[in-house]
Amino acid sequence: MKEFASINDILDFAIIQEQEAVEFYTNLASRMKIEAMRIVFNEFAQEEMKHKAKIIDIKEKGIYLVSSEKISDLKISDYLVKADLGREMTYQEALVLAMNKEKAAFKLYMGLSERAPNAELKSLFLMLAQEESKHKLRFEIEYDDMVLKEN
Amino acid sequence: MLDQDIKYLKFKTYLNTYCPYCHQSFNVEKKDNKQLIFKAVFKGEETNLILSPYLDVFEAESNLNIEAGEVLDDILCPACKKSLISKETCCGECNSPVGEIIISALSRLIPFFICLKKDCEWHGLTKSDERKIKLKIPRQDMPEQDKTLRVHNHQEVPYGYTSELASLEAGRCLQCKIPKCVEGCPVNVDIPAFIKYMRENDFDGAAKKIKERNVLPAVCGRVCPQESQCEAKCILGVKDTPVAIGRLERFVADYERKMDLVKVPVIKNKNNKRIAVVGSGPGGLTVAADMALLGYSVTVFEALHELGGVLTYGIPEFRLPKSIVQFEINYLKELGVRFELNHVIGNILTIDELKQHFDAVYIGVGAGLPVFMGIEGESLGNVFSSNEYLTRMNLMKAYRFPEYDTPMPRGNKVVVVGGGNVAMDCARTAIRTGSTEVTIVYRRSRHELPARLEEVHHAEQEGIKFKLLTNPIRYIGTDYNSIKGVECNQMELGEPDSSGRRRPIPIKDSNFIIDCDLAIIAVGTGPNPIIFNTSPDLKRNKWGYIDANEETMETSMPNVYAGGDIVTGSATVILAMGAGRTAANTMHKQLSNK
Predict the structure, then answer these.
(1) pLDDT band at B335 (very low <50, low <70, confident <90, very high)
(2) Residue A25 and which of B211, B404, B497, B519 are 20 to 30 A apart at CA?
(3) Taking CB atoms and an 8 Å limit, are A80 and B569 in contact across chains?
(4) A43 in contact with B at a CB cutoff of 8 Å?
(5) Helical segments of B435-508, H only
(6) Exposure string (b/e) for B445-468, b if CB count within 10 Å is 16 or more?
(7) DSSP class of residue B436?
(8) What predicted TM-score, i.e. pTM, was given to this entire model?
(9) Would you say the C-alpha torsion A98, A102, A103, A105 has a positive or negative sign?
(10) What is the ipTM of this complex?
């Protein structure tokens, strides 16, 4: 697992992660056949842009808050068959891909928080993990409402 | 004291009287037109009791000796031995118990309040009491096939009301001046008006009144979720059970059909405009009928080899006999609607090509694409989507193999995933085709089951097991890739989220396996993409359903309308019909420049 020397290192890493997420969702949007689906993933890309801006802000001002809000984990992505990035994807496949991406990011930050050398770093990683779990929950709710409608 | 208007009930022709509980006849030959005589058990013996129009005279026509001043104990139905008397108040004259005798006669439950003391001058019923009394008429159950017999056949489960039961139930309607039930009906059937006809024993008139707004009454009377629509709004339901509107609708439609009373209206003002309807499900049939009645020339294109859409391929015979669907479609044929079978629009003809030959096009193709959960093992042998399973069984008549060529998917232990009506249909079909154990696996609690209560009740009666708060996470295969079990998680409902909904969450380390050799996935459906492959201009939402204006059902393509499941995702027959009606209204306005 990645080692960090300072908080700034962590934040730089997180900024890169968020930028990758922006590109991921922009790419995903371009593979959607239906305009409404493209809009959804472009909106997600814009949200990731906001997250990136938020982390840059933390880096510049040095202030961040760890919310005590508990984010539900529906664990839907735990048992879904992994989807690969295809040339053309259905909305269901895109959701599975997005859920797994957010889950991986969440796990990464949680893993880093467990290995953090001090409380300050730990809380920063937890804050980032919480952001990712919110993303995952949003996709899981969408999947829950539409794909698993009658279950 | 006595309200003279009410005191003299006009019972001139009380030819038929019935027990409200077991519906056995009390009939006694009428003595004269001012006395009601009925059989009952009184003082342990069957005897004839007489009620005069004065209500306060109560005599036994037998050797029983009722002495003046004697307080009567009880009066029982001779067949079911249930008490016909409720003693809730005291007589204002003599403080003896006042009984309310409830028997059914003509089209009403007739309550008689009497003092149970012989020779008491009883002071009876007031107008406000009359309203209260109607609340006490029990909602009438439909007779149905015995549960032990019906699991061995595919015949319809409920038999429907008899005319007596229908009249009795119709008698419960309060005939509200501002009827909420009509608001609850997506096609706005004038419910109090058709019930009024029933109360006058004019069932034909009732049928015609329904048909003014609903071209498929026999279908809707069977499969509509009335409990969440018209009946949910019935004022009787606030304190008691609502009028059984759906059962009455079904009775009236069946009566009209059986008595051969269906009259096809003569269509005047025929115009030379042509309408194409894609899909012969309930929405498409509604558009077709409405437009045909308005004088348009209508052609319905059906992809399958039989008409009816989901009514034919989706809903099993035991819930909706196909002869009824056929009968309703024949009515449309007699209206002049043309039907083209085996026409997959999107392949044979595109929407643009249809537009070249027709003035307007309605797309009502439903949501026929199976949806899978996306978990491991869904491609194993003997794992079916509900679409395939029900299509094989209903449309292709697999349950009548080898008479029909379609092999029947069969398992001894069957798991059905999902809690909607489709899941109930699959489970109940499986039990009828020889499966020894059928289990419905649903990941929420009983309270959230999306299926109609009636369907859940019937499924339980037939021995279907329910594993609630249970979620499949993997299908397990044998060495030859056929299913042998489903691994599941035990679930619990989490805290309500921002939408107020409690979502199911797996309990840690709660995994267990249910053995099975057939699994049917009934978690929902999606839009079939065929029609869109050649119509990329048709705007859709992120789930692939057509983006149509809810008020007009217009799509992004001029003169192309859409409605039903292809717009909303899987919903109900009557909602599809409501959308069809809206589309027909818009089409007519635009094509006639009104």
Answers:
(1) very high
(2) B497
(3) no
(4) no
(5) 453-461
(6) eeeebbbbebbbebbebbebebbb
(7) S
(8) 0.81
(9) positive
(10) 0.86
